[in-house]
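Researcher: We're teaching a course module on how sequence relates to structure. For the next exercise, students receive a sequence and then see the predicted structure as tokens, so they can try to spot secondary structure elements on their own. Here is the exercise chain.
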Amino acid sequence: MNMKKLLKSLSVVFILMSMVCFSSCKNGGDTSNEAHSIQLKFSRLDQDLIAIDTNHIAEDLAKLKSKYPEFLDFYLDTLMGFNIQGMYNDSNPGIIYGLRTFLTYPDFRGLFDTIAHHYPNTTSINKALNKGFSNLKHYYPQAPTPHIIYLNSNLNNYAAFTYDTIAIGVGLDMYLGEYYPYYASVGIPHYMTQRLTEEDIPVNVFQSLYRAKHPFTMENRTLLDMMIQKGKEQYFLEKIIPFVSESKRLGFTQQQLAWCEASEAAIYNFFIDRQFLYSTNLQQVMRYIMDGPNAAGMPKESPGNVGSWLGYQIVKAYVAKHTDKSLQDIIALPDAQKILQESKYKPK
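Model: And here is the predicted structure for the students to work with:
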């Protein structure tokens, strides 16, 4: 696979964002709660790498190639930038100066050790992902079942990403908890580190699956358009990972979610009064549908991404009045204004 094709196939979650394509299939109304039982394949590339004999790296890489036939070179070269290019010999500069340093330098080894401490196993994550993919199979029977590969991305902000449709990578180094001290050193603000926990992994994985099929678009879009896009995504997550709390699915704290619920009418009126709802001025409205410490012009208790929450409320109001429509029907609706009108959404 050439580099252009590789980069095109890569879809990455930078902290909380990623994409991968899955096939959709019309199920009719969402009346069944039965999930399709599946069993995902899970691997620990982080553990496999740190187990390499650093005196015989090339030999051990050749062995790993059989375990990760397509993914290994992608990880080493595209993701980590070692430029080994599949040439597994101990004179390769990519091995000498890249991979060997990654495996032996004390600070880098310390990150491997921290991951091992936090994740001696991934049993609970595996269970959650199996449940989510079982639900996905109910709504999308043709969706591929990927290989889940846990890894160490060296704090490069790769939380979850997909490689074509065959694998999903999960950078365990990006889920070491809200107070992991080195997140600040690589420029991650605290309002984002609160979402770098084990519970956030299923959210990020299924966000990636959704966004490949329905990528978020901003160009020539009104704030309402963007809010409904985010609202549909939240509705998808509600269906696929209902066992994850609403605050986690939204990326809010419980306090932020409580503030939104108590201030629903005020939030809606804020956008109406300022005529933001139909604004296409991205500098003016983007801050309400993207991550931030809080929403501009609103109390400090507000989440920066408050517009996504409001879009979710509008989508839920629409669903309540159109119970015959399937998940696929709702996601395929093209007209945000029509969704708002037909939802009869009027918070009090």
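Model: If you want an answer key for the exercise: Residues 223-240 form the longest helix (18 residues). Confidence is low (pLDDT under 50) at residues 1-34.
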